[in-house]
Amino acid sequence: MGCSNCSSDGGTPRGCKNNGNCSSGGCNKLEVFDWLSNIMLPSGQTPYDIVEVRFKNSRKGFYRNAKGIGLSVGDVVVVETSPGHDVGVVSVAGELARIQIKKKSPGFKPLEAKKIIRVATQDDVDKWIKARSLEKEVMYQSRTLAVNLNLEMKISDVEYQGDLSKATFFYTAEGRVDFRQLIKDMADKFRIRIEMRQIGSRQEASRLGGIGSCGRELCCSTWLTDFRSVSTSAARYQQLSLNPQKLAGQCGKLKCCLNYELDMYLDAVKSFPKSDTKLHTEKGSAYHIKTDVFRKQMWYAYEGDSASGLIPMHPDRVREIMKMNQDGKKPRELNEYVAEVKVKEPDYENVVGQDSLNRFEHAFKKNNNNKKKKKPNNNRPVEAVKSGENPQPPKAANPNQGPRPQGNQGEQAPSENANNPQRRNKRPNNRRRPNQNNSGNESPQ
User: Where are the domains of the chain?
Assistant: First the structure.
């Protein structure tokens, strides 16, 4: 039933294709991963009897399992309310629920937790689905009634109770609204118990959800549970232009993500000199324009001289000029203290920053070249090969001394290829051919 809100006609989800049977809760807001579900409890310890139950959108509550029902994440249960009962889905159970209670409500008293009545039957689930199907049409009709009464309010969401006995209307307004007549009109038309609940703009964006300017789902509807105040000073510290169209989120307020990196910027700005101090030179006085925290540069411009443009300076240079001004000295101009702007050229071949797949090919090629070293010539004398010296060229053989010795008799005579560098590296031929020049002498077999 986790995909009942995003399902198409026939109960089939549009994206996950699980037909409403998924228990991971991927379609829900503020989902929690139970990382303690597979951990066994010590012997003799009973499971924690309080579970977290999720209702429509981001509304959750803690309920006591007084009857000891075996519950797991994703089970549809019936819980007690005042009046009647409601239907929800178990989102957190076991020891993780104990941690969630300490985190979200430190002063929470388990004795005040309402009880879980039973696991939802088919009749409870059918009535619950019927209540969800009526919410959209009831919201449109209630908006029409509010417009007819000229009420300055916006009804953003309607949530029916699981037993169809009560409906909660969430609205936003800038001031107080007298909706007593509106409640009477809605009670006569819908024949149910009416409850009006005012929420802020951020709570409205959290309930409805959406896509931010970053291309991701809103933080308030996915994981952010507390809404801290965001001021324009957070944008000033981060050197952002005070453009409300860029700094505002879906709720119309300043984006919550402006506080994410604010502490880092505050620590970095401490190392910069004060920007409200002017730099006095012989050419004129210069005032601060902007600061580049990452490149550690401060940009200054002369008063009444727009032709000079912006002058980038290192914070140390700015302190040096400030100290000179305190001593009653003035530099000639700021261009003498200009800091070089080093812009790193992007690597278009490795844009993502990953290593290349063929980064080890040059090492393999080098090893292969080492294996193909020149082998010593077998025709060279053994003593010459060991000593590394080139052997002396052999003397011309005298035909009157008879044929050459056969077999392995003493040292082998060097071949004629030893003196020829082009033929020295060639592989020697084991088969010897007869000498055609000396017809009188026969070569050894």
Answer: 50-120, 127-205, 228-269, 279-337
Report in angstroms the alpha-carbon separations of 142 from 82, 160, 183, 400.
Answer: 23, 14, 10, 130
pTM given for the model: 0.62
Alpha helices in 153-261 (DSSP H): 180-190, 201-208, 219-222, 232-237, 244-247
Strand partners, 302: 286
**Phi/psi of residue 279, nearest 5 degrees:** -105, 120
CA atoms within 13 A of residue 150's CA, in its CB half-sphere:
0
Spatial contact of 287 and 301, defined as CB atoms under 8 Å apart: yes
**Residue 249: which of 291, 216, 298, 225 has the closest Cα?**
216
The residue with tokens 């388990």 is 110
Residue 17's CB is within 10 A of a number of other CB atoms, namely: 9
DSSP, residue by residue, 359-397: TTHHHHHHHHHHHTPPPPPTTS-HHHHHHTPPPPPPPPP
Are the beta carbons of 118 and 102 closer than 8 angstroms?
A: no
| Topology of the domain comprising 127-205 | GMP Synthetase; Chain A, domain 3 (3.30.300)
Reported for 307-313, long-range contacts at CB under 8 A and 24+ positions apart, including other chains, are 311/286, 311/335, 311/338, 312/338, 312/339, 312/341, 313/337, 313/338, 313/339
Q: Provide the pLDDT confidence category of residue 93 given band limits of 50, 70 and 90.
A: confident
pLDDT at 88 over 80: yes
DSSP 219-235: HHHHT--------HHHH
Mean pLDDT across the stretch 189-214?
A: 90
In the chain, the amino acid numbered 325 is N
Cis peptide before 83 (omega within 30 of 0): yes
Q: In this predicted model, what pLDDT tens digit does every residue of 396-441 receive, in sequence order?
A: 555 555 555 554 444 444 555 445 555 555 555 555 555 544 444 4
Please say whether the beta carbons of 264 and 239 come within 8 A.
no
Instruction: Report the 10 Å Cβ neighbour count for 182.
Output: 22
